[in-house]
Amino acid sequence: MTTRVVIIGGGPGGYEAALVASQLGGEVTLVDTDGLGGSAVLTDCVPSKTLIATAEVMTGVAESTELGIRFGGKDALDAETVVHVDLAAVNQRVLELAGRQSADINRRLTDQGVTILLGRGRLEGKERVIAETADGDVALDADVILIATGAHPRVLPDAVPDGERILTWTQVYALDELPEKLIVVGSGVTGAEFASAYDALGAEVVLVSSRDRVLPGEDADAAQVLEDVFERRGLTVLSRCRAESVTRDGDRVVVRLNDGREIVGSHCLLAVGSIPNTAEMGLEEAGVALDRGGFIVADKVSRTSARGVYAAGDCTGVLMLASVAAMQGRIAMWHALGDAVAPLDLKIVSSNVFTAPEIATVGMSQAQADVAVPKVATVKLALQGNPRAKMQGLREGFVKVFCLPVTGIVVGGVVVAPRASELIYPLAIAVSQRLTVDQVAGSFTVYPSVSGSLAEAARQLHLHGNDLVPKE
């Protein structure tokens, strides 16, 4: 008998699950509200990284004088006098790319035989989904239900977005002109990425951080590199202070801090976290447990507390990354439809912060390595010694590799560099496949290449008898 699968939410967790379920012979219906791809494609990952791609070009232009490039004549040195960003054109491209990506996903699902309903889904017990569509409610009986409804930006009680001057990260793509002075509230990944991008695009940027440093959840050495870069480029970071309110005064915004200071700018971007889209869905009535933040409680094979109901993506609060959401969705369907499945292993997940430079991590963190017993061996190499980095004029960055004593198995790493999101892949393979530093060191790298520093770090962690002795 064909298994009826109903998926609520068309983001990475939902559409990847739909593809797997269809391939495994399920009768799949996907109920989606905002457009296939979800926030990852329409308002988050794809748009922000497209914007950041333009910022990367501007960063390269601004720092190209070291490479001998001159602008506006042989005596001119300032790239900013001859190069500027047309933000309206940038954002038009951002939205067009997001729309095309969403359409591609739609075609792929349709080709796989997935039925797509435009509407809002809610549970009616454990075996039925009600899709609230423009033509009325549609009842969908299900053997398996997956909830992949994502999350939306959190806002402050006294900082209500207006979509013009006070913005969430989903609203910035409506801007036609570059902000004269952008105040970014929140120094986590989203806040740091937008602060870095708009600084590169030419805006004056102030970053308000409630913690003692930016990116408090990332590697401390990496965060320090980014703070040093921000300082060098003239970006202002206000640490250990919170925004109590954001108000609009004509063409200005006023951000009042908890220490009494007021910061005046042209625009304010709120990047203070996310709230799961789980309200008024009939979840608790169906026996689906939520935590205190409203996130769905799911195990390592994406099961909820309700039999036959699974959950994936940001609505679970488990490492809010598109790659993790997609894997949770796939795992859910593999498990539900009887295919071979391995539980979600967060220890092998690689992630990236798309600032300039980028910060990529995988596996064990420095904080975990510092308290590990037995002690984890660590090597950190600055990119200043890498020949390719010198050729490219790279000033900041490093690679860091962690491995276990005695065995030399690679358990984690950090890369801080342009395109760190690409450079982390060899370490991700090493961590997931439990390769040793000797195996990594024995692989050829191109000379010259930034990835050569990864092999050099592995060589410095070479296994000698029963002890790993990092060489200075």
Automatic annotation (TrEMBL):
Entry keyword Flavoprotein: yes
Cofactor(s) recorded in Swiss-Prot or TrEMBL: FAD
Domain Pyridine nucleotide-disulphide oxidoreductase dimerisation: 350-457
Annotated ranges, domain FAD/NAD(P)-binding: 4-329
Keyword Flavoprotein in annotation: yes
UniProt superkingdom: Bacteria
Alphabetical UniProt keywords: FAD, Flavoprotein
Family: Belongs to the class-I pyridine nucleotide-disulfide oxidoreductase family.
PANTHER family (alphabetical): MERCURIC REDUCTASE, NAD(P)H DEHYDROGENASE (QUINONE)
UniProt-recorded name of the protein: NAD(P)H-quinone dehydrogenase
Species in which this protein is naturally found: Microlunatus aurantiacus
Source lineage: Bacteria, Bacillati, Actinomycetota, Actinomycetes, Propionibacteriales
